[in-house]
Amino acid sequence: MDHDATLATYDRQMRREARPDGPGTRVERVGPVVRQTGPEHAWNGVLWSALDGLDGAGVDAVVAEQIRHYTASGSTFEWKAYGHDAPADLPERLRAAGFVPDEEEAVMVAEATRLSADVVLPDGVELVSVTDEAGVRLVTEVHDRAFGGDSSHIGRQLLDRLAAEPDTVAAVVATAGGEPVSAARLELIPGTDFAGLWGGGTVEAWRGRGLYRALVAHRTRIAAARGYRFVHVDAAPMSRPILRRLGFTALTTTTPYVYGASHAGR
């Protein structure tokens, strides 16, 4: 994989030319910023910015305009700052404007057809495709137990996608004895080379048994069958060693800078 070429393609397709990620959302280019705006339960935030030609006051003015835009509708939002974004002091300016950084993640990418697609499950575990409200409830139950907090906004996003754009999302739950123990989803953006692996979570008692790896393989198999060249993940530190062993490469880092209430993430 050519790192620089892949990063440039990722920036163009997934950020500068981003498409709405669900019904009721819109993506717009406003001056040097590409942002998504939607309902309260949707992901709202800045996807890309071209601020390298501005002085400090100019950068601060652009940041202030995004705050005005989202707070006018009462929305929590993120500014997704990437490790290679300019200017170098953008994170400090976001914090000074009232944003709170979440955990830094690594943007990791692999060629879908080159990954091992063997789905190896522990004894007694089966994978169930999510197609309706009952399945979405299982996904949110896993997320609540695996990550803590309230994942209802993720459930509403998934329901919206399944109802309006079912070909753009594939969610799966791993069950053991009828109990949901792991869940994840795959987002398929038409016209791009990248399929996104999101929300992989496993309840504590089932960690370390290969479920994360199995759900990556399951979703990668779907992405490859649908013709996507790459799969990408915003990977937390715990996931990175597993993904590296599977064949993923780190392109850059991304940090969600959150403005407003507690849930803006995906």
Task: Give structural notes.
The model has no long low-confidence stretch (mean pLDDT 94). This protein is 33% helix and 30% strand. It is an alpha+beta fold and 266 residues long. Strands 1, 2, 3, 4, 5, 6, 7, 8, 9, 10, 11 and 12 form a 12-stranded mixed beta sheet that branches. The protein has 7 helices and 12 strands. Helix 2 links the parallel strand 3 and strand 4. The protein folds into 2 domains: 103 residues, 3-Layer(aba) Sandwich (Aminopeptidase), CATH 3.40.630; 143 residues, Gcn5-related N-acetyltransferase (GNAT) (Aminopeptidase, 3-Layer(aba) Sandwich), CATH 3.40.630.30.
Question: What is the number of independent domains?
Answer: 2
What portion of residues belong to β-strands? 25-35%
Quaternary structure of the protein: single chain
SSE series? HEEEHEHEEEHHEEEHEHE
- The CATH architecture of the largest domain would be 3-Layer(aba) Sandwich
Enumerate how many helices there are, as a single number: 7
- The tally of beta strands, per DSSP, is 12
Low-confidence stretches: none
Mean residue pLDDT = 94
Helix content: 25-40%
Please write the CATH class name of the largest domain: Alpha Beta
N-C termini distance? 27 Å
Largest sheet: 12 strands, mixed
CATH superfamily of the largest domain: Gcn5-related N-acetyltransferase (GNAT)
Radius of gyration in whole Å, from Cα?
18 Å
Per CATH, what is the topology of the largest domain?
Aminopeptidase
Structural class: alpha+beta
Net shape: globular
InterPro entries: Acyl_CoA_acyltransferase, GNAT_dom
Protein name: GNAT family N-acetyltransferase
Region (Disordered): 1-29
Domain N-acetyltransferase: 125-266
